[in-house]
Amino acid sequence: xxxPLICLTLGDMxxxxxEVGLRAVEALGDDASIVVxxxxxxxxxxxxxVGCRRDLHAFDPASGKAxxxxxxxxxxxxxxAGRSHTPGRSTREAGIDTVVAQDIAFALxxxxxxxxxxxxxxxxxSIALSGMRKTAMDPSLGSFYLFLVSGTLRIAHLTDHMPLVxxxxxxxxxxxxxxxxxxxxxxxSAWGMPHPRIAVAGLxxxxxxxxxxxEIAPAVSQARAAGIDAVGPISPDSVFRECxxxxxxxxxx
Length: 253
Known about the structure:
- By secondary structure, this protein is an alpha/beta fold.
- 39% of the residues lie in helices and 19% in strands.
- The chain has a five-stranded parallel sheet, with helices on both faces.
């Protein structure tokens, strides 16, 4: 069986992402098929920092070939941002490189050229400075969602780094919640969970708000009518514990 190809974006070049990402790649060795996306100079600097002894390999996803073993395969963002590498700073150049890397990864996933995309730690301030996107997972991307995993806790985010007033007035709508549930159900099923159990977090304490009653609850009913095992809204102070304990396979929040 051919191993899935995983795309790793290094996140903000001025943060810990490049170092953490390449340390993970080094730790996995040839046990995983990974291609790194980032500015070439940043990749080179991070590889040197972590003591990577692999030769760099410019990877062409259109070739249809797997990354060669024993080498550090990467896709250059082409932004030249590495020339402005200033660790610990929020910069426009870092934000541009972050967004371009994400767009490359998303495009590869859409085309089926990679089977998964892992996002390194990003800097919301740098992304905002780029002028290209407001947040890491901007709604303009469509049905793309931030998905976090820690043991049995799996969380799909409806929104990302957004002012609460915008969350309440613009984002928590029945159609958007229903789309998240449909997408999450489809992905979990494809990942080997034939009947995924999805908990839906409420927005307000004890789910006693108009958003919970008028938007989230109808979206859950809509999903259940479509055959999705969704339950909610469930109070945010308990729903994540229930997922950790195994009652649910994931939380939509």
